[in-house]
Amino acid sequence: MSGVPGTGPVPVRLEVNGRPETGTAEPRTTLADFLREELDLTGTHVGCAQGVCGACTVVLDDVAVRSCLVLAVQADGSRVQTVEGLGRDGMHPLQQAFWDAQALQCGFCTPGFLMTALVALQERDDWDRAGLRERLSGNLCRCTGYQTIVDAVLAAAAAAREDGGHAEGAR
Amino acid sequence: MTGTGYVGRAVRRTEDPKLLTGRGRFVDDVSEPRQAVVAFVRSPVAAGRITGIDTSAARALPGVLAVLTAADLAPLCPRWRGLLAWPGMVAGEQTALAADVVRHVGEPVVLVAATSRAVAEDAADLVVVDIDETTPVLDPAAALAPGSPLVHEDLGTNLCFAAPFGGGDVEEAFGRADAVVDVTVRTSRHTAVALEPRGVLASFDPDEQTLTVRVSTQAPQMLQTLYARLLGMPENSVRVLTEHVGGAFGMKAFVYPDEMAVVTAARLLGRPLKWTQDRYEALQSDTQARDEHVTASLALTADGQVLGLRSQVLSDAGAYSMLPRGCVTEGVQVATIMPGPYRVPAYASHLQVAFTNKTPLAVYRAVGHPPAILVMELLMDEAARRLGLGTDEVRRRNLLRPEDLPYTSATGNVYDSGSHLETLDRAVAMLGEDDVEARRRDAEARGCLLGVGFACFVELSAPGAMFYGAKGAPITAHDQVEVTVQPDGSVTVLLGTPGQGQGLHTTAAQVVADGLGVRLDDVRVLSGDTRLVPHGSGVWASRSAVVSAGAAHAAAAEVRRRLLVLAGHLLEADPDDLEVVDGVVGVRGVPSTRRPVADVAAVAYWGTHRLPADVEVGLGVVGSYSGPPYTFNNGTHVAVVEVERATGLVRVVDYLVVEDCGVLVNPAIVDGQIRGGVAQGLGGALLERLVLDPIGQPQTSTLLDYLLPTAADLPDIRIEHIETPAPTTTLGTKGVGEAGTAGAPAAIHCAVNDALAGVGARVSAQPIRPEDVLTALASAG
Prior knowledge:
A: 5 strands; disordered C terminus; B: 33 strands
């Protein structure tokens, strides 16, 4: 409550998708709500607010995090990448691979999967199917049965290897 | 129909770029000027009488706009009953906010509107609701015993509905049987968990007296009708918007009290109101399903021919029959689908549906099919073991053969076409490519028991008006689609049924492009605004590939006919001699006559002086399609599981599907439906269970407690198709959206029991948890 001392809104400065952004947040405001409501970046979705479904996954200083479990004030001064920052000149190879493989149906979980997969491919580009299934198991999809998501990430990995490296970095 | 051949091709979905780039517009992504945000105070107890509500502290909190109770909303929104014309069915009244009695944990009691969700939740915490707790009814069998407390006192009973189903002489069948096998099966209450929680953004325009509701739903026009009816408004003054909807699965096909409260309050307060459900609320208030208790017996000859089937089904409806689909559909389908794809000459089922103090039970993907198919397949396996037959062989001896079709089941369902036996044979062939016995030995070496389970099934899809409309529910069975050729030859399609991830825009574009003879890229599909689109019933019961696609085809065919009449005048040719291919019209076999559809369309719009007065020049047509009373797809699933002896953990290591849903409009979309459906079925078989404590308190209020399948829980799913076109539908489609979910629980369960059979153990309840497996192993000694 804003009436209680020390709980009022404070400024939060982030670098979001390569651009400086400033807004205000109560200490209790999550990064997810800050991105969605203060910065109008509604591509990051909140599916559970319990830290389980992974729909709200963003990349915070190169680490995939659940933005419903991070307070905006904790992220102050950090770099954040959201789905809106992927592929500003056309689709990112991961997005293209998801489209080609039909790795989405309703699309609600998709931004979170993309951000998790982005980091997973930076960790390594030679995932096998079983290992990738484990790596992606922190994100829930209720529509696809996951198989085409695995297909898409592996296709993006293969494309990146053919390019001789990652198609695009986390930033 | 001439076509450009898009139907049958796995074209990429037109829906996807917007979703992939994070520019989707789900309800919570959209805001209105001066909107306030809603939070609810919900019942903390399963049963009780409200004795007082003190909202004064909440009202005093800065930022709070209103704190509303049932008394505030009652003048604008009456009570309702989710009653359908099933003989003898009863249903208690429901209100937007609980008026005097609370009947399940999570029932909304007080609505708080404030400047932010956080302030609204702070205020909700300050509301004091006094409730005299009463003894909750939590067991459906006890609910039907004399002297049970009543969920709805005015009904005088907890029995919502009871009915017999079946046909043939069951007494005679069991009397002459060589073998009778029995099962008692329990499937657990679970829920859809659409990843986008429910949500609503409602506003009322006092000048035009119109209501606009943006809502996460699968049936926008149904809600338009019901909002209008409940609020006493003309239907043409209610507008329902849906752009992107993050999954629904049957759960978003109802009038929810909390949503109705937001809509009513928006009108009362004259401010746009937004409510976005959180997951905690979802697990208490979204409709639930699969809470079925079934006992069944199968009578057979010594050589494995089924003579008859008996079943008793007890369905736990929860506290309310939800408007408008009600709470008996699941139980009815459990009873009536059970004979499945088999020749079952005699069948008697008795269904009872009981009210309890739980969240309402309603339809969820494959409504009733999973328990029905599970029971029948477990009976088949029991019969195989009793008679010393292979589990595939006992099925083979009873599956419908081509010469049996059309076949009328003992419950009156007509299977007009299909490949019931062929899907099994194909599945066995797919499985045979691997060496199952070698895999068994390999598993054993790792401390695991390997099992193979079959599920042969039919799925009722695309039901007609007899399903709901004839029973008094405002749910249409037909769909409408409007197709317009614009002056430049581009095509606009207005889709009555929008979809929530099924790719209906893409499939509609494929059907229209083929129907007209234009390029797919020239077709743009729009939906999601009931003020603009023609009528559609929404997504339910695997209907869209039959009904919505049928309407799209009807509209395209009529527009094409008009185009050809126009072109006939311009080319001085008989329209019957004309063709339209890739957006070019001309006399068949005479290339010099070819001209773009745009040239013809331009004449239709502004060159009508060149045409006779009696030519129909409008190139926009609303097509409608009702379809047959229903269709049935069929299939066989095979699950291969490993059961770890030390831990009881079940892992699905291989999964095969042979599906026959008639003509495939888009094979990639069909496979996506099947795989996603199998995943949900796996959830029900192994993971998903809503747990209540002995006084009705939910113990599964987060997704840490309520387990959903992850990528690591699923194997790759191998799919083959047999395409037996439906003889009764325009495109030969049968619908497939629920087939994966229908078959998977049975295939996985049968596989687990096959694994356990070697040590004399079996399990009979879902989900099959590790502790259940360990208990079964221990009791088998």
